[in-house]
Structures
1.
Amino acid sequence: MKLWGLGIILVWSALAVGCSDREAVTAPGDDVTTLPPDPDGMPLPGPPEGNALDAVVSLAPSPVSDAELDGSRMTTRIRAVLAPDATVGDVNRVLEENGAAIVSMGAGSPIVVLVVDPVATEEDAQALATTLASTEPFLAAFPGRTFGTSAATDGTPGRAVGGPVGPAGRAATATTNAATKAAATKTAATTATTTAATTMAAHAAAPNLTAMSISLPGGWDPNAEVPFAHLELMTLLQTWKTRPLLSDDVPIVLADRFGDLPEHAEVPGLGSVDEFGGFHGSDPTPDGSRYRGNDGFHHAGLIGASWDGSSLVGIHPDGEIDAVVIGGLDMSEVMREITSRLEGRSGSQVLVTPLNFSYDPTVPVPMESAMLAAEWKFYLRSAGLEERVLHIASAGDTGLLSPLYSVSHTTSPWNLATSYSELIDYVDENNPTEADRAEFVEFETMLGIGLGLDSGPTDNVLIVGASGELGSNLPSSSTLPHLITLGFEIPGPCVEADPGGDASLCNGSEARYTGTGAAASLVGGLASYLWNLAPGRTQNEIRNAIEVGYARGGGIGVVDAYHAVLALDPSLADPAVREMMLDVTGDRSDYPNLDEPNGIFDEKDIEVFLNRIHALDGSSLRAGDFQFDLNGDDLVDSEERAPFDLDADGSTVAETVQIDVHGETLELDEGGVTDAEILCYYAHSSLYLGSTEERDRLLECVQPTGLFVELSPLPDRVSADESVEVTVTAGFRAEDGSIELREGVEISFESDGASVQPRSGVTDAAGAFRATVTFGSDENEMTVGVWAESDDEEVYREETVKRRNEIEFVERYLYLDASVFSVYNQDVGIPAVDIVRRYTFLEEDGAARVDTVLTEEGEGSRVGMTVRGNVRTQVTTSVELGGQGGLDGVSISSTSQGSITLESPNFDILSYQAQADGNVDLSVEFQVWGDPATFSLSGVVGSTDSEVYLDGPEGDIFECDEGSGGCGSINRTGTLAPGYYTFAVYHSNGGFIRWYENCDGCTVSGTQSSQGLLDVELGLSH
């Protein structure tokens, strides 16, 4: 402890003439000069007769070490409140008498943190605080305490939502989730007068287009399984379609403990973590099971971890995270540090605090809690932060404690400040003495002069509790939050293996922590994502979008991120989000931009949606499929219903909406619509900018009155020669939607790849006709159609079925480019000139052999140099189809030739070069259904700059490239399990010539030639 008592006046003199013994600093964006940390403390500066509160300056805190912590109590700190009439001399006299000094303070605040000699017990600390509070210069005093982090460590029961999910488990998860949502939200089908239906027959044989346009984080493969169930349950993958709209205007400020951080590439948006002189807050929890220093990195990862193919992904992996390290700081100091960080930036920000009071439940502390809440109000409002900061606060994990601590309203200063219009009401609820009540009023008066702190609660805080997978509130989660979301064993990064040995804790790189801190971090990441999609919105509007997502979450305890994003559209007159959701492809005749969104919703998008609805038909989804889930139920089909705000009016109340479809009224209940119905609604709205003729060919959104026919559903998959019984029903639909089944309607079948017996007849008295369909042995895909005829009306319906064992062609891309170009003396500013511009040819025809030759020649000169070149690339490719849409094999043969002639100039020049290139890039995607398939891969690659690979659900099956020494001869056989596969080859060859001044052995002029060969074949069969 510094013996400064005899030198008070001398120290003040030094400060008065410019702080000659310390260097004052000013935080960015802050007008208050802040003195650097002084672990030994200092007296209150100023003349002895001056008012103490007026003399308070800003002094940066000095965090305590692990050795100075007894649980959450800081053994060397006391938090004290200056009395309004105290003088500087009186304060310093009492400090000297009690061996204390000021170790941190904030200008304008009556709360100062004192450094004292270590105090061994809670009782002794309370006694010292009482002694200080009984003196005239101090209004109140409390033992210094750190914040607790919101993470349950009591073995809370629940169902884990983290962890990789295999195909079978993932399908079960999707089914369970869909069933849960459906049970809570399913309403009656759309009104009988107008039922939205989709004509799928036209797309049954169409190519199954792969999801290529979605912008997934960090190169996430669209065909990958979803790695963690909480991403699916919170409908996060549906929201990532909007990632191209993101700005980088709204950062996240995360206040937490951060361990000794190594490189943290897993969270690219996490800035430099200030380690406060080496203290990282890695002290263990009271039960010794965890290191608290892991919490901050775990929570940062839940917000913004990136995807690298094997690691973790956060809600907003593009977001910027600014860490406020709270380790070793008193709660009052933490609030000042947070305020300083927020003040240092202009504009909107999201603040995430996975923190709560860490009092011993046996110690009554309502007065202390209320004073901290008032201090937070003081900082927030005096800095003008309430309007531009959205604060996501954890509810706290005190649900199993006494009623005084179990309610989220009282678990942190910000929760108190937003839950009580007048904090004196909270004080009164806890039966204070008259003296205590008067003391609090006096304290609030000191803070509230001219700031209006008594004008109501803070309105920028969203309190988040934690739930398990099925939405139930975790027992440890504090009660009565604003909302709850997933918080049980959520996977995220960590930095130091926990000592507890529990599999749900940190293993050194990944943790699966439980608690409201995890839940708040997920919501905080979503808040930042939303605000960066719509940076012009207010914090209240972003909060409202989150609450809409919560209300739309199917009635279970999960924030629905997809519907929160949709809530950003203020109306259909300004539908930026919906336009991007509906725009999944471009004009596919524009080859270089195949499958890239082109900024409009047109018939091409409708066609892709219908293909995906038909292909997926309720099956479990891969990462790239979620962009086609329009109603957000984690399924892509035409039957399952979920709530959806069709007219974008922001209401969470289900309404009936109508839209005109060729004079008929399409009427939909927002309480439950299908993907197909959403597509119909927007295809007939102002959002649609495509061909109405093509739209009407593709979509049948209103079933007409009159004759109708229905065919009972066929199996999804059948074996060769399998027979099934089908039933045809026919009748008439009246204008009021009522249906009358009729006897005597003429029925006839058409089939492709299947036989039907009997093929024709009439309906019986119940309006039914029955037949047997036998599926062929040679076709991969078969269609059964049925005609109904009565009273000069005819209608047609059809169903498509596929074989159980099938190798299905998905799509193919072939890129060729040829170029000759030269570079002139870039070092001295003479620009490059393309002699022959680069051409790219792409084709996706999977049915025919394609022979392509690109030959380009060119000539150009500059500063005395002449370059001539030609490049010839010849490619022969073949995709052999088996049946309708099936795939038997792929072959590619490619040769490339290039030559360049370079003539030297007649004067010195630093450098020049010329190059000819011919490149081939082929990718074929296919899917194996049913039993494992066999494959054979053979060929010869005569160029070292080539790649050949075959990969699937389990990773690379075959790969060779230049890095592995080239391919040479290839001969590989094996089996392929059911799943998606990609077969790709790359071949590059060219000539190169250059000249450097004073370069011995460099080519000055002449001709360079090159030649390359690639011939590879992939055979497939069941």
Note: The mean pLDDT is 77.
2.
Amino acid sequence: MSIELIQPYWLLSLLPFALYWWWLRYRQRSKVSPIPVAQVEIWKRLSTPTEVRTKLLPLCIGFFLILLSAGPRVVPLPENEIGWSRDFNGFIHLDVKTPPQGPLSLLDTGSPVNATYVSSASGAVTISFLELPPETLLNLKGSNNSLELKVPPRPDPIRVFQLGEQPGVNEVLTALEEQNWITRVDAAQRYTAEVEIGPARSVRNRHVGFVSDGPEVWLPSMRAAKLDDPLLRGLQPEQWTISSSYQTATGTPILTGSKGEALVTRTADGFLWGFSPTGGDLSERSDWPLLLTRMLIELGEASRSRIDSQTWAGLHLPFLFTSILLVLLPVLLGSGSNWSAAVLFIALLGSLTQHEYRLPEKTSQTSSYVLWAKSLPAGSVIQIPRQEVAPPPEFFEALKTRGMGWKFSGQQTPQWSLSKNSCRPGEVIHIVHLQDSDVSGWTQKNPRGSISPLTLPLTPEFSGLWTIIDSQGVEAPLLVLPSFPVSIAEKTSDGLSQLFEEPTFKSSTISLPTPPLGGLYAWQGQELSSERIEEIDRWVRSGGILFASVGSPGCEDEETRNSLSNILGVNLPEPPPEGDLDMGLLLIDLSGSLLGSAATTLLESTLILLESGDGNTRWGLAGFRDELSWILEPGTSITSNTLEKIPELIRSGGGTHLGKAIRKVLPVLKNHSGQRRVVLITDGKTTPDRWSDLGKDLALAEVELEVLLVGKKTDTSVVSQLTRASGGRWQKAANPKEAQEILKTLLEENPAGWKKTTSPLIQDLSSVFLSGYTDPVGIPYQSLTPDSTARIGTAELVWTDAQRRPLLTLQRVELGLAVTWWSGLDPLRLGSSGPRIKARLRELLVSALERNSTSLRQGALTQSASGKRVFMLERRPGDGLEMEQGFDSSTLSDQSLLLSAEPGSTMFKGEIPDHILDPVIYQQSPIDSERSFVVSESSLENLALMKWVDLPPKGKQAMGFQPHSFLLFLAAIILISSPVRQRSGLGREQR
């Protein structure tokens, strides 16, 4: 604790106050000429002497009021030796600035705690371990001494009241309650709720309200209103499709439409949604519940007092003592104190109003900011220009410890804006509200500080903070986030390579991503060496994510299966029994009659069938016009490279001679010992032939014939004769979706090791991996789960079908995750729900990667109280208390800066030496050798979006209650003046 005075110059009034009191006493004595009278002298000797204490009481109270006018308050000092923090993944982190000496061990009732230790060069240590019950007594033991600590209590769950039944929201709240994030209250306890959810007109206090009237926006294109808003971290609102929305009339936009219409806003009392969270395709997405969850957490934290009653009293000493004096004055001094009490009452009433102050103009000495903040009463709100360079960190620390708030002043209304404020490398960014496409005179500044002319389309190549500058000098920031590094097992799999598409992921097959946090390793049946498996095990335990698709192709190596089973927490299945490889020949009609949508369906159907990749069929692909031509030789193993070349090789035109094509492929099939199949994709129009005889030849050769007629105008006469004679079948598809439904039936209903899944998909809503996601997703057509009870070991069931067969399982491995997908990734294994399933898997993995991502940290360049430049860097869970940061300048290169953090804080700070000119701070990308830079001082508007800076929230933090100093001084003057002076014996009346 420390004592400080808000307005110390009022102490100077003590001298004139004392002189005034002395003058009053001297003036009274000079007016009275005492005459010796015997009776009076005798009376003096007999009477009790007047107590000096009574005479000096008004003077003492007056002195005390002047002391209160200086605004004394007790400010809590931060605890600098020990700090605690918790993260989303269930870990608790302990920072100890001065730990015991020697090798450290953490004990709980004598038993070692499984923990990781990060030591700093200064001797400080950060310890991370899984959550323990609150108040657990821990012993941090060194070789010579020890330190006893207690696990701090968890924050209480947020009390939430839901008004009405908003579709989808109830399921999210149920999931959050199961995870002990919130506690739901009923209508009888509504007054105890910290957050309310419901229609915007009906909710009160802090709330998430849904707007249901006002200007309507149809088919809005969603985009983030601000650069890297923490509420939207890891989400992709640009991909949301909303059929209609109402514009929100109040608040700061979070999500807007393409024309800038506010669709989701932050207000002083909460958040407003202009659309239903399950409208449009949101019912098929799993990221909007995370946005709602973050809103609830933010509102819950803001609704609770950040200071306890003792601290609050220390910040409001003048108000408390003035209130006490107002009650005691009539008791101590009688009715003669009425005038003074009235002035004190006015002073208290005046303190109830919220005080707003505008940030003073920047001076050469930044320390004036901090000194100025110390001169303001608690409850003050500071107006800071929106684009002003951020004040020093000490300024915001002074606001936080003294119970003050801040808000922006002024508004920014740009003539144009970017379609997205954050993206991944390689994404196309559009400029909206631009009158024409002429961008001559526009420039772009990349994260390295280089400026070049702007060319459209805008596709930033690497991560970091980009700046777009128009011809008038107006700037717009663009934060390019690094892609998540994904390493695919040595033999690339088509399904995996398609699952991790750019630009969200950057895949390779070289090595495991470094560092593990924020990286993913994908495996699909490849044989791995024992050294590689040990490396993967260590990598996952250090924070990596292992994603294993145990569908086709199955892993034939028993040692690989057994070793990975320990990491995944499941028993991996054996591959199907070996046998003769099946031969499949795909004949596609390339005649000129297949045009438009029919040609598209033919191409899509071809790729879908070849992508099935069940591992037991080798394919040949031939196109026929007047003659047959091989596109893929018979028996070809299909890979991603093979599929990429197919669209270039398919060209339509010419006549159609189906009979000649079948006769040419028939000898190839007869020479094969396994199962033989011909899949024919055509519109049915061909030259005449002896179709019954040709069909009998296929039947004698034991060749299965499957015919798929594509297009809206087809001829069934030929294929009817052909399939009737061969024992085959024909089906018709007007579009690729219908074709996919038909082609998936070409798979066996129950091949070895596979089972057809049963609807619906069941999700474990309490799973941390899902994070409250509730959207009903389609189920795969088949899953590799013949015996569900024998397959699951210690892993958590995240998705199952109606018969409780596992579809997605999760195993936590220390800091990392091991995820198992129990189906194939090819379209025919997934069925019609394939695109939605893949999208959901990507979303879940992105969310998990975001939580512990080692992507480029956010940084900000501000100034210290002494005027020096200070670089602040985001600190993440598990980091130590110190970090080395590289930087360049115009005079030096490849320098390092030591950054340090206070225990329990969320940011590193370090002063840049004065001799370093034009510092350029960089961070090495975890993916490649590209460097991303922070090149300029940060504006407060951008700094406010960085939650790790720990700025106090906008608005009132504690009630002001600072009586006006002048009124306290006036009340003190009245106390020593008439009539209180006369009744207290300060002077004598003249007769």
Note: Confidence is low (pLDDT under 50) at residues 50-54, 925-930, 982-991.
